[in-house]
Every structure is written in C-alpha cells, then in structure tokens.
Amino acid sequence: MRLGEIHLRDPFVLSDESTGVYYLYGTIGQTAWGGQAIGFDAYTSRNLVDWEGPIPVFRPPSGFWADHHYWAPEVHLYQGSYYMFASFKADHRCRATQILISNSPLGPFVPHGEGPVTPPDWECLDGTLYVDDEGMPWLVFCREWTQVKDGEMRAVRLSRDLDRALGEPVLLFKASDAHWPIEAEGEGNFVTDAPFLVRQDDGQLLMMWSSHGIEGYAIGIARSATGHIAGPWVQEPELLFEKDGGHGMLFRSMEGQLLLSMHRPNIHPYERPVFVPIRNRDGRLKVILDTEIGQQINEEKSEE
C-alpha cells in the first residue's frame, strides 16, 4: 500500500540501515478518539513508497491498566533493546506515558517497569526519549492543557534501564511562551504536543513541538540556550510547518536525506502520514520548498 492508504496519526519512523528497512508506527486512526483500543501496528518499507502491513506489534495483556486512547507510539533502539514510548488512558486514571520493550522492532512489545513513568496525578502525553551527553536517559513529555490550561513541556530523568522515573519533572516551557500558538478548546487553553529532540552537529539542542496555529495544527521549534535539557528554552520566531500538519519527528532516508514525518491534515478521519524533505543548515531546520525540489518526496516517487 501507499502512505495515502495508511490511516495513522502521529507517524514515527525507525530506520534500520543494517537491513535497509523502515518501520512506521503511529496512532491507529480508527480508534484514535473513541472506542476500545486494540493496540499498535507497524508497517515496513524499503523505499518509503510501498508499505506492507499492518503488522501487530503490541496488544495489551490481560489486566493492562489502560483500554482507550492508545496514542503516539515511538520506538527507540537503546542498549540493544527496542523501547516503545506511548500514551494510554483509562476511565478514572490520568493519561500517562508507559514504556514497552521488545527484542525486535516488530515486537511483540510488552509493558516495562511497574507502570507509567509520568506522575500518577498528572494528565500527560507524548513522552519521548532523550539521552544527554553524559549518557543519562530522559523522558520529555507534555503536561496537558486539560489539567493546567497553558500546556507544559516537562522533562524527568529515567533510570538507565528505563524502568522508572528518577526525581521530579522539571518545567522546560509553557505553550504560551511561544508567540504562535492560538487558544484551543476554550479561552486561555493552549496545547503542547509532540516533543522531539534534535542534537545538532555543533552541539545545539533543538526541540520540535506542536500546537494549534493560525493556519491549523503546526510545528514550532524551541532552542536550548545552554545546549542542555534544562534550558532555558528560547522559542524560534519562525514555524517549521504551519499549514495543518503536525506531531512531527525527523529521520534520515537510506540515501541520507533528512525527512520530517508528520500527519496531515489534522482532521479526523482524513489524517495520513506525510514525509517532507528538510534542510539543516547553520543550525536551522527548514522545509525544502516545492519550487526547490518539485514535489514532496512521497508524491514525487508515487508517480514514478
């Protein structure tokens, strides 16, 4: 199948250069907003155009604490194992990030540790892994606007085997610290979504994140003034993407092209994965315009 046939939100791509295989994960579109969640699936490709799947990679075991809103799985290779970070929800329990583990990118993934790694009384989502220059793993995640109105970006240290949080989460920034987010879901409510950390060759530390902008769902960039996770974080004046696409992450093609993966549009049930070429120059990330490349890579290849 082609990307346009895959109904996923929050698409995340893991590239395996040793085998030449791309693994695509995401929120299953059909159960993104309601109904009994079934788990997470993956799709595989060797050219980013033709995909095979869905392949079940996580199905909740008996007694698993969450039964709906299985969102935004990310898979990271860390110390020889594959770890999935994902958001889960249950009635009368706060939305939380749970870490899963497998010895294969195609699972089966099973719960890791004794439960969620975000605070039990916080509404949290979109946890991502960041490993600092000392090799210490961190969970970077969003504390939801549904609880604090002005959505927060937080970070907490993880144990080296990723089975628990260490200490209290630190506040990195709030959604309203950037000029571009607009109020959503009521007056005074600002969304933080989808942190993704990028370490530049010159040592600069960037964070991509999403919220609602004037032209729809959008991706902005924050920059750590110190190059460390604690910041302070300075919001870039220009958006990376602003026209109703978001929950982005970066990966490289087997040919070395830097690509932005996101879903677009942000309208259910029409959201689909999209890959867009990115230029990384002088510490700045920028979408390569259509006039420079002809078309987005997935559209261009589909017509070959």
From TrEMBL:
Known Pfam families for this protein? Glyco_hydro_43
Where does this protein act, in terms of pathway? Glycan metabolism; L-arabinan degradation
GO MF, one term, reads: hydrolase activity
Q: Which SUPFAM superfamilies match?
A: Arabinanase/levansucrase/invertase
Q: Which domain of life is it from?
A: Bacteria
Presence of keyword Hydrolase: yes
- Residues making up the signal peptide according to the UniProt record: none
Alphabetized InterPro entries for the sequence: GH43_arabinanases, Glyco_hydro_43, Glyco_hydro_beta-prop_sf
Family to which this protein belongs: Belongs to the glycosyl hydrolase 43 family.
**Name of this protein:** Glycoside hydrolase family 43 protein
Organism the protein comes from:
Cohnella soli
Lineage of source species: Bacteria, Bacillati, Bacillota, Bacilli, Bacillales
